[in-house]
Amino acid sequence: MQIFPPTPPLPVFPPCLSPGDKLCSVEDCIPGTGVYLRHGYIYSSLAGYVLRKNEGEELPVISVVRETETQLLPDVGAIVTCKVTSINPRFAKVHILYVGSTPLKDRFRGTIRKEDVRATEKDKVETYKSFRPGDIVLAKVISLGDVQSNYLLTTAENELGVVVAHSESGAQMVPISWCEMQCPRTHSKEFRKVARVQPEYLQA
Amino acid sequence: MGNVVQRRTRGALRRCPFEVCGNMAGLELLSDQGYRLDGRKATELRKVQARMGVFAQADGSAYLEQGNTKALAVVYGPHEMRGSRSRTRHDQAVINCQYSMATFSTAERKRRPHGDRKSTEMSLHLKQTFEAAVMTQLYPRSQIDIYVKILQSDGGNYSVCVNAATLAVIDAGIPMRDYVCACTVGFVDETPLADLCYAEESGGVSSLALALLPRGGQIALLQMDARLHQDHLEALIEAAMTACKGVSKVLDEVVRQHLQEVSVLTGE
């Protein structure tokens, strides 16, 4: 008969937590979001409810969540949805609207440089033929920028680029190739750097 | 002779009533039985009432009353740096505080609600206090705005602002290491008085304002600009810390109640 050692009792948490509440020691759980480490113990940093997830590793991940999600900031490597506000031979200025699928309460400003529009033939890019003001663009954050500049974004991938654009006559254009879109009303073609949206995201 | 008496009487009437009748019962800051002007004991705090989530438009807001002092705090953020871009910090968020008093908050209508020296100094103190508690490293290159407005001023302005702003920051969901609780204490007749009201503050009491992170016992800000003997300092700080811990219990209760109300509304 095998005798198993008694498992230590799981710490019991109060239903609501407030900042500064001690949760457990770092040996029992891995810290997630909404918590911080101090002197080997995990403390809550938000007012909310505790969430414990077992992600396959030995220790569960502990985090504190609220009903309303707090403001998310664009992080390096995140895919963002932005709207082009102005273009320039050297770069395009955009307003970042969504980070992933979370809408932002406040717009952040970003810049797509000429050399970050495409992966190939970077020096032959014309921003006027890639974006126009008012286009909705999928881009990736490459840098948070320094003191003077905004977030730096890139569309140098097949899946990144313009997703929604309006033609000069005002109708929403349909993509034809990776560099052209056509207006359904006037049948005129315009140049854009088009994003190749994955087939499963296209609605039939 | 008669003229001298008249002059003396006129002079006495012009002086502050507390100075003239200083030893009369009822106007003493601390009576022999240990009661203060408003009937509290030396270590007793004023009644604290608070509400969170007062405004829907702001990211976080709170209204707090401590006795007759009423303050409203509003938090926006974290959002992109506005104004002078040169103040952007690449590794943490910038906290921008503004303190102002409503024109109707004091006994005499306030001529200049913000922009004067005292408001600027208070704003700076609030900024220093919250930079110690808010985990700004999680939001590089962004800005958190905290606006506090005093609606009625009856002493302990700084403390009430800090307590109201703590609740507003928690309501906004910005991570903090701990609550920040503040209290103003004074020293009268070898006794520390906790949570001074306006009559006590202006009655020549050496007052000290302390902002504390209660669970760790860490002091975020300590401010005093009066004269106090060095031997009394330890006792005064000790009394301030006890008072702050009392305030933190009340704030904790408010936060938990608000959380339960919100979860009932969202049907969790």
Automatic annotation (TrEMBL), chain A:
<feature type="domain" description="S1 motif">
    <location>
        <begin position="75"/>
        <end position="156"/>
    </location>
</feature>
<dbReference type="GO" id="GO:0000176">
    <property type="term" value="C:nuclear exosome (RNase complex)"/>
</dbReference>
<dbReference type="InterPro" id="IPR012340">
    <property type="entry name" value="NA-bd_OB-fold"/>
</dbReference>
<dbReference type="Pfam" id="PF10447">
    <property type="entry name" value="EXOSC1"/>
</dbReference>
<keyword id="KW-0698">rRNA processing</keyword>
<keyword id="KW-0271">Exosome</keyword>
<dbReference type="InterPro" id="IPR025721">
    <property type="entry name" value="Exosome_cplx_N_dom"/>
</dbReference>
<dbReference type="InterPro" id="IPR003029">
    <property type="entry name" value="S1_domain"/>
</dbReference>
<dbReference type="InterPro" id="IPR039771">
    <property type="entry name" value="Csl4"/>
</dbReference>
<dbReference type="Pfam" id="PF14382">
    <property type="entry name" value="ECR1_N"/>
</dbReference>
<protein>
    <recommendedName>
        <fullName>Exosome complex component CSL4</fullName>
    </recommendedName>
</protein>
<keyword id="KW-0597">Phosphoprotein</keyword>
<comment type="similarity">
    <text>Belongs to the CSL4 family.</text>
</comment>
<comment type="subunit">
    <text>Component of the RNA exosome core complex (Exo-9), composed of EXOSC1, EXOSC2, EXOSC3, EXOSC4, EXOSC5, EXOSC6, EXOSC7, EXOSC8 and EXOSC9; within the complex interacts with EXOSC6. The catalytically inactive RNA exosome core complex (Exo-9) associates with the catalytic subunit EXOSC10/RRP6. Exo-9 may associate with DIS3 to form the nucleolar exosome complex, or DIS3L to form the cytoplasmic exosome complex. Exo-9 is formed by a hexameric base ring consisting of the heterodimers EXOSC4-EXOSC9, EXOSC5-EXOSC8 and EXOSC6-EXOSC7, and a cap ring consisting of EXOSC1, EXOSC2 and EXOSC3.</text>
</comment>
<dbReference type="GO" id="GO:0006364">
    <property type="term" value="P:rRNA processing"/>
</dbReference>
<dbReference type="InterPro" id="IPR019495">
    <property type="entry name" value="EXOSC1_C"/>
</dbReference>
<keyword id="KW-0539">Nucleus</keyword>
<keyword id="KW-0963">Cytoplasm</keyword>
<dbReference type="GO" id="GO:0005737">
    <property type="term" value="C:cytoplasm"/>
</dbReference>
<keyword id="KW-0694">RNA-binding</keyword>
<dbReference type="GO" id="GO:0003723">
    <property type="term" value="F:RNA binding"/>
</dbReference>
<dbReference type="GO" id="GO:0005730">
    <property type="term" value="C:nucleolus"/>
</dbReference>
TrEMBL record, chain B:
<dbReference type="GO" id="GO:0003723">
    <property type="term" value="F:RNA binding"/>
</dbReference>
<keyword id="KW-0694">RNA-binding</keyword>
<dbReference type="InterPro" id="IPR050080">
    <property type="entry name" value="RNase_PH"/>
</dbReference>
<dbReference type="InterPro" id="IPR001247">
    <property type="entry name" value="ExoRNase_PH_dom1"/>
</dbReference>
<dbReference type="Pfam" id="PF03725">
    <property type="entry name" value="RNase_PH_C"/>
</dbReference>
<dbReference type="InterPro" id="IPR036345">
    <property type="entry name" value="ExoRNase_PH_dom2_sf"/>
</dbReference>
<dbReference type="GO" id="GO:0016075">
    <property type="term" value="P:rRNA catabolic process"/>
</dbReference>
<dbReference type="InterPro" id="IPR015847">
    <property type="entry name" value="ExoRNase_PH_dom2"/>
</dbReference>
<keyword id="KW-0698">rRNA processing</keyword>
<protein>
    <recommendedName>
        <fullName>Exosome complex component RRP41</fullName>
    </recommendedName>
</protein>
<dbReference type="GO" id="GO:0034475">
    <property type="term" value="P:U4 snRNA 3'-end processing"/>
</dbReference>
<keyword id="KW-0539">Nucleus</keyword>
<dbReference type="Pfam" id="PF01138">
    <property type="entry name" value="RNase_PH"/>
</dbReference>
<dbReference type="GO" id="GO:0000177">
    <property type="term" value="C:cytoplasmic exosome (RNase complex)"/>
</dbReference>
<dbReference type="GO" id="GO:0005730">
    <property type="term" value="C:nucleolus"/>
</dbReference>
<feature type="domain" description="Exoribonuclease phosphorolytic">
    <location>
        <begin position="44"/>
        <end position="175"/>
    </location>
</feature>
<keyword id="KW-0007">Acetylation</keyword>
<dbReference type="GO" id="GO:0071028">
    <property type="term" value="P:nuclear mRNA surveillance"/>
</dbReference>
<dbReference type="GO" id="GO:0071051">
    <property type="term" value="P:poly(A)-dependent snoRNA 3'-end processing"/>
</dbReference>
<comment type="similarity">
    <text>Belongs to the RNase PH family.</text>
</comment>
<dbReference type="InterPro" id="IPR020568">
    <property type="entry name" value="Ribosomal_Su5_D2-typ_SF"/>
</dbReference>
<dbReference type="GO" id="GO:0006364">
    <property type="term" value="P:rRNA processing"/>
</dbReference>
